[in-house]
Amino acid sequence: MIIDPAVMGYYERGGELTRLRQGRGRLEYWRTRDVLRRVLPPAPARVLDVGGGTGAHAEWLAAEGYDVELVDPVPMHVEEAGKLPGVRARLGDARALPVPGGEADAVLLLGPLYHLPDRADRVRALAEARRAVRPGGVVAAAVISRYAALHDSVYLGGLLLEERRKVEYGTLETGVIISGREGGFRGYGHHPDEILGEFTDAGLPEPRRYGVEGAFWLYGDVNDWLDDEGRRELLLDAARRLECEPSLLGVSGHLLAVSPA
């Protein structure tokens, strides 16, 4: 496995232990779960969770009766995910999956495409997902929106700094995301239409695209909505009604692309 040392260092600090479980990151978690529950084959289907981190999604999938195997390049992630009931975890690279072909009912790529700035590597990861899934199975891949870094910079106030403006405006041109914090997140942001050609070149049918958070992740009181179960369900329902609207895809922090293999 050849992993960008900056990416490995970022994840080894343990941010994935809490990112989807605290704060507004919970909106990404709840919405991703909401979409997956509708597009995955029913349990006990076999799900390969590639780049699954510490198992935030593998955990609920296993609890709902899925046969879950998680593959991730970060040793700490594999160790933590392996502690979850019903989850098998091993080291591996999305571009060369250590699994036989055609045995999974669904393959999830809920992180790998974030960290592959070269298009050829992203297509290779998608092609590996296609190889690993059975005919008629499901491939679901998450991407970060090309516009998410700029939106986040306004939300957090970073855009007030000239050096951050240069970085965020550069992301609009290149897709390369560089956090302003020392040792922070480094990744790649997709234009909403970009993923269509990557799926095609990987031999997958054109995917259906879902805006995960919509514009709601930018609302200052989003945590209040997520903290209250009743309000959270209203928020998820509102997001569900807008999730495939083409004119709103780019405002979402993340997109989920789903295709039958």
TrEMBL record:
One Pfam short name: Methyltransf_25
Biological process, per Gene Ontology: methylation
Highest taxon listed in the record's lineage: Bacteria
Matching InterPro entries: Methyltransf_25, SAM-dependent_MTases_sf
Statement: the UniProt record of this protein carries the keyword Transferase: yes
Residue ranges constituting the Methyltransferase domain according to the UniProt record: 47-137
The keyword Ribosomal protein is assigned to this record: no
GO MF annotation list: methyltransferase activity
Keywords: Methyltransferase, Transferase
Stated name of the protein: SAM-dependent methyltransferase
Source species: Nonomuraea thailandensis
